[in-house]
Design a protein that fits this description.
67% helix, Arc Repressor Mutant, subunit A, 396 residues, 3 domains
């Protein structure tokens, strides 16, 4: 794997694997532009990767900054990759691949960041190098315990908060969640662990215990549930608890294939292949392409806004504009066509352009966050006149 050398690269690129091998670095153009702007227009030290890492960690911890965690996810890609390599070498009998371990490591970014304490370790990368392999080992141990843990042992072990989060993630309705919760509460209150084999091997409740759980549920439902519900049978309670255990198992130990869904919540992010070596000219080309697309989209928005503004004018003003710009009539010809005075036609044309320019200026301030200057107003006025001649004239 080619190590990243440049600061911007470290905080804006992600590993792409091909099978179980490193393939290439992918650049996230949004992160690239953000870190570039930070280095150009702020007091951040561009020569210190650790300084930037601590800066983004502070932004994430104090402000829950979403782009900060993405920068840190990019920064820790190498740590996660080598942790995955180390784990697969250590657990040779595991069913997981390098890509699986790499996904697991990427999904644990928040845990790593939460546990990082700058007072104990001044380098985030150094901490991650130690913490990520340890975290992967913990995950494998927990998954192994979950695999051999019975449903009843899992329900005894899980907390109320974890249960409710698992049920909510499963998409259950509020009333059904309340019923599951009450059934679990009754089960946990009455099923006291007394087997010598430990909690992992707890067996299904005996018939007498099931009866006690059902009776307790039916008594408590009148006070604990906000909506009236019918009495429950043993079969229904057992079905709920069994399903609850499935939901909890999936919530606490999700399959590896689903872990990548949590890595990034920003679907608007765009990635590009990053060749070796890092090419500034290619980055410039990427940005130019994105700028051209943004400019085209912006132009379409402006044209739609101007056409919509025209529709708000009174009919006579619209007619004068059409005759002047679409049909190319002179003001004297419009006077003759509409039987209006020359000053009226001239005044309406001028007023229409003024209203459109004022609307365009306001829209630009509100939508594009543009600070309007006198020079910009002059430029916008010229552009508006050109649009009326060319674009509005084409719409006839």
């Amino acid at each position: 794997m080619r190590p990243r050398q440049q600061i911007i690269e470290m905080f804006s690129t992600f590993i792409e694997l091909e099978g179980d091998r490193f393939s290439k670095w992918l650049i996230d153009i949004k992160l690239y532009r953000n870190i570039q702007n930070c280095l150009e227009y702020s007091a951040l030290n561009p020569n210190s990767e650790n300084f930037l890492a601590l800066h983004w960690h502070k932004c994430w911890r104090e402000e829950s900054n979403s782009i900060a965690i993405m920068h840190l996810s990019a920064y820790l890609q190498e740590s996660n990759y080598w942790a995955a390599k180390k784990t697969i070498a250590k657990f040779t009998n595991s069913q997981h691949s390098l890509a699986d371990y790499f996904q697991m490591a990427n999904a644990e970014i928040e845990t790593i960041l939460k546990n990082f304490n700058i007072e104990k370790c001044s380098s985030l990368k150094a901490y991650a190098t130690m913490a990520v392999p340890s975290r992967l080992k913990d995950i494998l141990r927990q998954r192994k315990e979950a695999d051999i843990c019975t449903n009843w042992a899992l329900l005894r072990k899980v907390s109320k908060k974890q249960l409710l989060e698992a049920l909510a993630q499963a998409g259950l309705s509020p009333i059904l969640i309340a019923q599951y919760r009450l059934a679990w509460t009754c089960f946990k209150e009455l099923y006291v662990q007394n087997q010598p084999g430990g909690t992992k091997s707890l067996l299904q409740p005996e018939p007498q215990l099931w009866e006690a759980i059902v009776n307790l549920y039916n008594r408590e439902r009148q006070n604990q549930l906000t909506q009236p519900t019918p009495q429950c049978t043993r079969e229904k309670i057992e079905q709920w608890l069994t399903q609850a255990a499935i939901y909890v198992r999936g919530y606490l130990y999700p399959p590896v294939s689903s872990l990548n869904l949590a890595i990034s919540e920003d679907d608007s992010t765009t990635t590009f292949d990053l060749p070796d070596p890092f090419s500034d000219s290619l980055i410039a080309q990427m940005i130019a392409q994105e700028d051209a697309q943004n400019q085209q989209n912006q132009q379409s928005q402006i044209e739609a806004f101007l056409l919509k503004t025209l529709q708000t004018f009174e009919a006579k003003s619209q007619e004068i504009l059409k005759l002047y710009y679409q049909q190319g009539l002179t003001q004297p010809q419009i006077v003759e066509r509409l039987q209006m005075s020359q000053p009226t036609v001239s005044r309406r044309l001028l007023k229409a352009r003024e209203l459109m320019l004022a609307a365009l200026i306001q829209w630009s301030q509100d939508t594009l966050n543009i600070s309007v200057t006198s020079n910009l107003v002059n430029d916008m006025s010229s552009a508006l006149e050109e649009w009326l001649k060319v674009k509005y004239g084409e719409s006839s």
